[in-house]
Amino acid sequence: MVALTPVERTEPSFYVPVVAAFGALAGLFVGTAQGSSLLGIIVGAAVMAGVAFVLTKVVKDETKSMLSLIALLAIVGFLMGGIAAALIGAVFGWFFSWLSFWLYESRYRQHLVPYLTPGQVLWHYTFRVICGAILVFLITPIIVVMPLSFNAQDFFTFTPEMLRFDPAGYSLKHYEDFFSNSDWQNALANSVKIAPAATLLSVAFGTLAAIGLSQPHVPFRRAIMAILISPMIVPLIISAAGMYFFYSRIGLQGTYLGVVLAHAALGIPFVIITVTATLVGFDNSLTRAAANMGANPVTTFFRVQMPLILPGVISGGLFAFITSFDEVVVVLFVGSAGQKTLPWQMFTGLREQISPTILAVATILVIISIALLTVVELLRRRSERLRGMSPA
Amino acid sequence: MTDSAMTPDEHRRADEAATGPMLAADGRPLKASLNRALRRQKLRAMMLIAPLLIFVLVTFIAPIADMLFRSIENQIVSDTLPRTTTELAEWDANSGDIPPPEVFHALFKDMFIATERKAHTRLGSRLNYELTGVSSLFRKSGRRVDDMGEVYQDQFEDLNGFWKDGENWSAMMGSGSWLSAMGDWNGNKDAAQPIFEARGDIASTLPETTAIYSEFASFVLSEEDNVLTEDPWAVVYAALYDDLANGADVSGLSGNGAAELQEAAAAVAAFETVDFTAAFADVDEDWHSIQVWETIQTYSPNFTSGYFLNAVDMQKSPDGPEMRPENQRLHIMLFGRTMFMSLVITFSCILLGYPVAWILANLPARTANLLMILVLLPFWTSLLVRTSAWKVMLQQQGVVNDTLVWLGIVADDSRLALINNQTGTIIAMTHILLPFMILPLYSVMKTIPPSYLRAAKSLGATNWTAFWRVYFPQSVPGIGAGSILVFILAIGYYITPEIVGGTTGTFISNRIAYHISSSLNWGLAAALGAILLAVVLGLYWAYDKIVGIDNVKLGG
Predict the structure, then answer these.
(1) What b/e readout covers A150-159, taking b as 16+ CB neighbours within 10 angstroms?
(2) CB under 8 Å to A185, separation ≥6 — which residues?
(3) When you count CB atoms within 10 A of the terminal residue's CB, does the N or C end of chain B come out lower?
């Protein structure tokens, strides 16, 4: 939608007080950190009001004023509290010069429909700030954990050295611990043994069943689907309890096979869902055509059907893999000390002696998730393209 | 009837009557041929599904069924104390008297055998769930029953040295075929020991002795000792005394031990006897407490509703189920807390998820996809990573408190307690479950045309009216789907409450885990699990009605 809202420059009586209000807010924080909130508010409001007026009416050129304000506030920050404060100063400088010109040039109005009242415009931006805050809430834990994992101290917060960007405040020692500690290495080895085996089982059985389920005439389709999806619906603690009771009856409790079977069962719903979704758009006349040309069912499956549903199979497999790789409740009960996986080791670490090595492991796992997420997204697009659901 | 008045179906039938059924190319009736093709198609589909179905039934459904079975199963009492529970069935707990001497007599035999098998402590801890103190009572009695039986053993052995020897016993009790099989086996470690078989005439004359000796023989067999040479338990002597004192006619017996039996039969009248009622009271006064016997009697049946009653803070009593004393009620409070906190979490997820889903659905596709990454990344990140992040951030010396102190919002000496309480659980779980709210909401909002809102506004609606009367009702299915999903996931959560919940922020699932791994009260754990499962399945059924399980989508 292109809005053709005519804009003109606003009066200083509008934008100077707004910038001053933001300045007061910034001043409140700076002032509290320095000792006096009230002084901070007053100074912040006054300085920023002046800055807004000077930049728009005296300097006038946006690039020039932005650069000079960034430089100025960075120097002030540096004098007040070192490199970290200089960085914050620079961010303030960028923000206030941008805000001044954004308001002065009426750019905030440009992309909105002309008939909005000032109140509606204000709400529009407030709403975006709220959404931004929620998205920050979503991503903060992941963002905070990563730098903390490079902490040179055994603390779980940013040390003054880290905030000063002093290289001495950072180190790789928690990563070294992860790669040298035998507990962690055993756990990693167990995870790497269990997850692929479970994935293979769920993908093999799951794909066959998904193909069966997508046939036109399946008796008791809903009931079968409900049973196959149930491992995803039943709370993990209940699955874990049931498996613990049953597997100890039949001697599978505390064995690799037991854990692999349990994880395979948990991964199956994901394979079923993704592969069934891929098969929805599958053109059955392709298999008939293949059969017509003399291909036997096995050849038809591997040469015609499989390449088309492969993206769904792989992303289902990735889901199953990550289910097993992240799973802790079931392995806690079904496994014994010999099958301690990475999440189990993390869980023990979190409950007993919490060590910053956990943060290093967490960072590594986040990176693995990002890689897997990328693969799944690419596969989803490829699958949609193959099935002609969306243009390339 | 004229030709034109016939329906097509009647036409077909008329044709069929005239020319016979329509035939397929191979000469079969077309109908049969089509049916056969349909059957084959169904069979093929079922054959593709069958391996997975069997796999899931064995690895997942069977364990759940086992758990449900365990929540009512109670065979341990009647298995461990079979004679006592049979005798006890006659006793009336309301009479105010302790059970008759026969019960104590039976208890002696059961307790002796259970002690030899080391099963008495297990039963003790099982009954301890129902009545505190039973566990130590059983353990104490287990140590003392040996003394009670020795009274009889000593008298038999004093009477004739024949009774001292295990070989004499086995020669007397065993059938001819068993004895010769034992001779062939001859202690060979590689071959299996023959299973004990009682001599026919002994079994009919001395039934009690035979029953207990058989139990002894099967125990010895399971321990891989030689039944022939092993000296019998003291309780076997007591049983022999009972049989002889009851007037068993041993005069007609011949063969091994017949003479000694006849000698003993004449002597038993003068034997010193044990008053088991007094002997057990001597071990512990509690054996004369009505409450203990009441508990054993209440839990005698093979199946019990006791675990379920316990799971809802009730207990069995002679007058039927009643509430537990106020200070022992825990589970209803925990269920209530689980429900309440899950509702709070669901509501926070709606509150935080709605604006984000709205903005994702209304921004240009490029920006929306970029922002979507911020939603999907936490969704894909390991649960433990996110929980550890919150544990680290919410600590007293953690990032959140540090930032608040630095900003001067809280004082350094009054840092907020954000972890190990309900606040911690709610914050962390809202964050973890938020993507499950945003994604269904987003997919519903994506289908609402933005022109509806503009139309409403151009017809004079205010912003609020347009949203509330036009947009919101159309997004309700998304809220419903997301809420049920988040709620189902929340009430079964274990890891996060365990790590950040402390004592006040834990859920019913933490109690289930506690009963499985720490208190070992598996029956109660299973009953709590069964109730939770019922709630979840109810919600799942609702979800299926509202959204349809086929519409579950993963990721974007």
Answers:
(1) bbbeeebbbb
(2) A179
(3) N
Residue A145 near residue B389 (C-beta atoms within 8 A): yes
Chain A residues near residue B38 by CB distance under 8 angstroms: 217
Q: Which domains does chain B have, with CATH numbers?
A: 3-70 (no CATH), 82-297 (no CATH), 331-551 (1.10.3720.10)
Residue B182 has pLDDT above 90, yes or no: no
SS3 A379: helix
> How many Cα neighbours within 13 Å face the side chain of A182?
1
Determine contact: B395 vs chain A, CB below 8 A: yes
Contacting residues of A for B46, CB less than 8 Å apart:
212, 218-219
**Residue among B374, B388, B529 minimizing CB distance to A346:** B388
**List of residues 6+ apart from B123 with CB closer than 8 A:** B76, B77, B80, B81, B114, B138
* Partners of B198 in beta bridges: B174
Residue of A nearest to B61 (CA): A227
Q: What is the DSSP string of B173-238?
A: HB-HHHHHHHHHHTT-SSSPPPPP-B-HHHHHHSHHHHHHHHHHHHHHHHTT--TTTPPPPHHHHH
Residue A392: predicted pLDDT: 33
Whole-angstrom distance, CA of residue A329 vs CA of residue A189? 19
ipTM of the complex: 0.85
CB distance B433 to B457 below 8 Å: no
Query: How many other C-beta atoms lie within 10 A of the C-beta of residue B36?
Result: 12
- Reading the block at residue A291, the tokens are 């059969």
pLDDT at B316 over 80: no
CB within 8 Å: A264 and B55: yes
B314 DSSP 8-state letter: E
Q: How far apart are CA A80 and CA A40, in angstroms?
A: 14
Tens of pLDDT, residues B81-109 = 888 888 888 888 778 788 888 888 888 88
Which SS3 state, helix, strand or coil, does residue B311 take?
helix
Inspect the interface and report whether the beta carbons of A135 and B375 lie closer than 8 Å: yes
Long-range contact pairs involving B241-249 (C-beta distance under 8 Å, separation at least 24): B241/B152, B241/B156, B241/B268, B241/B271, B241/B273, B242/B105, B242/B208, B242/B209, B243/B205, B243/B206, B243/B207, B243/B208, B243/B209, B244/B206, B244/B268, B245/B269, B245/B271, B248/B205, B248/B206, B249/B205
Q: pLDDT tens across B368-398, in order?
A: 888 988 898 888 888 888 888 898 888 888 8
Residue found under tokens 């924080």: A29
Cβ–Cβ contact B333 with A under 8 A: no
**Contact yes or no for A89/A78 (Cβ under 8 A):** yes
What single string gives the DSSP state of each residue in B144-185?
Answer: HHHHHHHHHHHHHHHH-GGGG-HHHHHHHHB-HHHHHHHHHH
Among the partner-chain residues A120, A369, A373, the one whose CB lies closest to the CB of B382 is A369
Mutate to test the interface with A, among B392, B419, B495 (most CBs of A within 10 A): B392
A185: tokens are 């290495």
Question: Nearest to residue A196, comparing CAs of A313, A320, A345, A366?
Answer: A320
pTM of the model: 0.81
- What are the beta bridge partners of residue B246? none
- CA-closest candidate to residue A160, choices A89, A92, A75, A83: A83
The minimal CB distance from A264 to the residues B59, B381, B393 is found for B59
Interchain proximity A362–B533, CB inside 8 Å: no
Q: What 3-state class would DSSP assign to A346?
A: helix
Distance CA B468, CA B464 (A): 6
Q: A187-208: per-residue pLDDT in tens? A: 999 999 999 999 999 999 999 9
Measured from the Cβ of residue B245, the count of other Cβ atoms closer than 10 Å reads 13
Chain B: nearest CA to A105, how far in angstroms?
A: 24
